[in-house]
Design goal:
Helices cover 39% and strands 12% of the residues. The protein has 388 residues and is an alpha/beta fold. The protein has two domains: 235 residues, 3-Layer(aba) Sandwich (D-Maltodextrin-Binding Protein, domain 2); 93 residues, D-Maltodextrin-Binding Protein, domain 2 (3-Layer(aba) Sandwich). A five-stranded mixed beta sheet has the order 9-8-10-7-11. It has a three-stranded parallel beta sheet with strand order 4-3-5, covered by helices on one side. Strands 1-2 form a two-stranded antiparallel ribbon. Helix 3 crosses helix 4 and helix 9 packs across helix 15. The protein is globular and about 55 Å long. The N terminus is likely disordered. One of its GO terms (biological process) is thiamine biosynthetic process.
């Protein structure tokens, strides 16, 4: 997640075309030039995935780091970018060719659709709704309608596209809710400090907040919401190019293998991330790191018995989301889920040797701190902070 309405850009993207937003919400390239834009006919060079949160120093992307460490991407030239400080940058940069794949929430994906961006969801990471409402201890509720007349804190104004459909689906009159942009990464601290009545959160972040001394209780989307969560999107035109489509299948196979590895050995997946980001390792430590990843595995895996594999879209869930946001005016025209989401790449992405991945995961030698953890005990207390 990132802070909206800023057009500053990170060092990792500064060499590329600088973007602006028009009054209609569309992205344009400035006079800095368009030499960085890739021609449609050009094969992928370095394949760039862009974060929705302005940072990579989180556990959310553990499948990539686990897959990279294990060599599951093979000879593909892959790159991860944190993105600039704009809540909708993850779709804007893909749209204009500054990145090849983004990871938007459904709400931000709807922003892309509303603004005519020709993007398609190809790999649905969030099989369960990752989003939640955080409350100060003793102030939580399982009836979100009680938030009418109250104030909800967001890290970015762009996140209203997440909270509005989440609340509306629970029967809340969203016109009666006030939002305050409390900034990234300070909106949780603002809630703890007595500002607002609730704050948007998500799985994985709950554990990270505990590491920062932010101890809340939660209404959890994973337990109460039928809406989808974040997904991987690409340019629709790339799916019409046989070479690019074949590349995407191979790239997504690496992610699927990373997801399987993490499911089989979550502690090893945390170690892969911690090796990449020592500061994150220091801040979280093995137990909270494992807690965070287990929360996310629950979201990413969903009910695998009813899915077509890692990344498979539940079209009914997506259609319910699009119907809800059309009803509340977040999009002006109805959207058919099958028009903007596809499972065409799911079969190839999941076509890997699961026994080998399991053997890799089982054979990983954990460091002492991780080996000492009782994973089943952590799982048993994964939802202790849910509102009772």
């Amino acid at each position: 997640m990132t802070k909206e309405n800023s057009i500053s850009h990170s060092a990792g993207i500064s060499r590329r075309t600088f973007l602006q937003v028009t009054g209609a919400g569309l992205v344009t390239a400035t006079a800095l030039g368009v030499s960085g834009l890739r021609a449609k006919a050009e094969a992928y060079g370095k394949f760039t995935w862009i974060s929705p949160r302005g940072t990579l120093e989180v556990l959310d992307d553990y499948p990539y780091w686990a897959a990279k460490k294990a060599g599951y991407f093979g000879d593909l030239d892959t790159d991860m970018q944190p993105g600039p400080s704009d809540g909708t940058a993850t779709v804007k940069f893909v749209d204009v060719g500054q990145a090849d794949m983004g990871f938007p929430s459904p709400g931000v994906f709807s922003f892309a659709i509303q603004n005519g961006m020709k993007l398609k969801s190809v790999f649905h990471m969030g099989a369960r709704d990752t989003f939640s409402m955080a409350f100060r201890k003793g102030e939580g509720t399982n009836d979100l309608k009680t938030l009418e007349g109250k104030t909800i804190l967001l890290g970015s104004a762009a996140w209203q596209s997440i909270t509005d459909p989440l609340l509306a689906a629970q029967g809340v009159d969203i016109k009666k809710v006030k939002y305050v942009e409390a900034g990234w990464p300070t909106w949780g601290t603002a809630l703890a400090g007595g500002q607002g009545d609730a704050a948007l959160s998500w799985e994985g972040l709950r554990a990270e907040w505990i590491a920062k001394g932010l101890d809340f209780e939660y209404w959890l989307g994973v337990q109460n919401s039928k809406l989808p969560a974040n997904t991987f999107v690409v340019r629709t035109a790339d799916l019409e190019d046989p070479d690019r489509k074949a590349f995407l299948e191979k790239y997504l196979r690496g992610w699927a293998m990373g997801l399987e590895f993490g499911y089989q050995n979550p502690r090893a997946a945390v170690e892969a991330v911690f090796e990449q980001f020592p500061t994150l390792a220091k801040n979280l430590g093995p137990e909270l790191g494992t807690t965070s990843i287990l929360q996310q595995i629950n979201v990413f895996r969903g009910d695998m018995d009813k899915r077509g594999g890692w990344g498979s879209h539940d079209m009914a869930s997506w259609q319910g989301f699009f119907d809800e946001i059309h009803k509340i005016g977040q999009i002006t025209n109805p959207v058919k889920a099958e028009d903007v989401c596809t499972n065409d790449l799911i079969g190839p992405a999941n076509d890997f040797d699961k026994a080998k991945v399991k053997a890799d995961a089982d054979g990983y030698k954990l460091s002492e701190g991780f080996a000492a953890l009782d994973v089943e005990k952590i799982k048993a207390h994964l939802f202790d902070s849910a509102v009772k």
